[in-house]
Each structure stands twice: as structure tokens, then as C-alpha cells.
Amino acid sequence: MKHILPAALAALSLASFAHAQQSEVWRTEIGTVVYDHETPNGEAVLTFPIAGSAQRGVAFIPELAGQQTGRGVYYGLWIEPDGSGAPACDFSITDPETGTPRQTWGRIQMIFVDPGVPSSWVLRRGYCFDDYSEFLIGRPVTGG
């Protein structure tokens, strides 16, 4: 039994790595951004690193799900766990997947450089309903 648990954990780790290899991944100045999955409502879900934390933030981008060609400009929202270091908003929104209320959120605009996959992008981010105040450049990580 003692040998089964490490083997099972290793298999899960390899399965997670294989899944991540199939996802789109971009390198940014804050770390790796991953196209993690899609919601039943047709939103692309991207995860991103949070400075000084093992947790990851989440971005929900409607209309990006399933788009492999013709990519352009998309609008969505980002959510981080409260207390992650980003400013808290005056009121909460509900995380669409977990139903958890969060006060650390904002709007994003994602602009793809090329219409196909892989492509670099520029992401603009604002806090709460404020104007965009930060930007991030993502460059695709490709095999090889």
C-alpha cells in the first residue's frame, strides 16, 4: 500500500503535465498564463500567477472559447482570492464557477496580435469598473 500512493501521485502529476501541454500557454513578465479550460457558457478560462502566492488568479473571457482562427479583441473579467495584494473593490462579484463572492476583481481587454494559434497578445487590466491601468504582454510557449 505504501508503494501505491507515490505511484498514484506520480501518475496524477504526469496527467496534469500532459493536460497542460495540450493547453495554450504564454510566457509573461509575471509568469506563465495558461488557457486552462472552457465553461459550459462558452467562456475561456485563463489562469495567471499572483505575486507572492501559490494561488492563481482566473480570467473569464466570453467568446474566446473554441476560437482557433479569427482571433481579435476580447473583453472579460479577472478574479483573484481576496487578500491577494490587489486592491479590493467596494462590493463583491460572484465567481462564475465556484459561486464564491470576491472583492478582488476587475475588467480585462485581450488583444491578439495574430488571428490564429499560436499568437502573442496584449492584455489590459483595470480594477473593479475603473479604466484599464495595467498591461501585460503574452508570448506563446511552443513545443520543440
- Strands ordered across the widest β-sheet: 1-2-3-4-5-8-9-10
Distance between the termini: 38 Å
- Give the count of helical stretches: 1
Low-confidence regions: 1-21
Helicity range: 10-25%
Strand content: 35-45%
From the alpha carbons, calculate the radius of gyration and give it in angstroms: 16 Å
Tell me how many strands there are.
10
The sequence of SSEs as H and E is HEEEEEEEEEE
Structural class, by secondary structure, is mainly beta
Number of spatially distinct domains? 1
Overall geometry: globular
| Mean pLDDT over the residues | 87
The biggest sheet amounts to:
8 strands, antiparallel, barrel
Describe this structure in words.
- By secondary structure, the protein is mainly beta.
- The chain has one domain (24-140).
- It is 13% helix and 40% strand.
- It is built from 1 helix and 10 strands, in the order αββββββββββ.
- The strands form 2 sheets. Strands 1-2-3-4-5-8-9-10 form an 8-stranded antiparallel barrel. The protein has a two-stranded antiparallel sheet with strand order 6-7.
